Amino acid sequence: MPKINLRGVEKNYGANAANAVANLDLEIGDGEFMCLLGPSGCGKTTTLRMIAGLEHLTDGEIQVGSRVVDSVTAGVFVPPEKREMGLVFQSYALWPHLTIERNTDFGLRLRNLPKAEREERVGKVMKTLGIEEYRHRYPSQLSGGQQQRVALARMLAVNPEVLLLDEPLSNLDAALRLEMRAELKRLHREFKTTIVFVTHDQWEAMTLATTIAVMSAGMLQQVGTPNDIYDRPANRFVAQFVGNPPINILELAAGSPADLVVRARSYFQQRYAQIEDIGSVGIRPEAIRIVGPKTPVPEDAFAGSAEVSGILPTGGSWIIELSTAGEKLFLTTHQAPEIEVGAMVEFFVKPKTLHVFDGAGRRSKTADRLLNPAVLHS
Q1: What is the pTM of this model?
Q2: Within the chain, how many helices (H) and strands (E) appear?
């Protein structure tokens, strides 16, 4: 399967309009499952459509394997039907008057494949996706999850070099989405197709992708594995966008008199004075530990006290809200809490779990080196 390279890609819909995608450099590896993740309007679907050839570039170049498929400076544009890519939309786009079998082999008929080869491919892909028994039914006779499988089968049957998926699971209920995520992971392992998947759902990206590209306002924010994105967010936007419950942010640069902010400011000044320009500090909910009777507090930990203002069971885990002088912290635990709302508690956070951002919202490399010296950072 080919590698996809986007170099200096831009898309603008008018002279006075902001760039939908700005100066995008992105490499999608051979056989990779890449998720384009971000909020609505961040440019992820536009990027997918430019890769597919449904949108012309304003500037830049897209190369698939050794072939340039779109280049503004070279005047090259390969039409969508000649890019050997499969595209699955948010809507299933199935032909209502054709059976499931005919929907599945639609692309193969357009390519004039011999009947025997057509039947072999269709039979294999329908069996793989578990829709073989529905071959003589029509789309209206299937559930949403089954129709989504048919849309995927239609694309996989033509054996595309690249499979492009534009939020294909957003119309499904929670149970079906979970089932289809597992199905997509299995299909990626089996077919080893290069997949580019657009989603605004962080958990979808975290559970599916081998690599995630986070976008905001047309700009690429970070590219990395799901663990990279979560454990070492490149900036505040990524840190706050990925994570549920969201990361706790303490604004140290704002001069807030809140007790927790004053404690954090003092903690860094006394222990890590080498870190300059600390704008804010992020604390993941699972990193906060409440001090119990037998809980040793590490000497170098950031610690404080707060009132328990809420306990929210989520089924298998609990979210605990802590309040102190106008600041709130949310922590998560998988053990049933032995505290009640209104109780005063002590808590701590190990330094290696703190995320420090400068005044511009960028991750502090100096802080990474000092807070977690056991890990070598680039």
Answers
A1: 0.87
A2: 11, 19
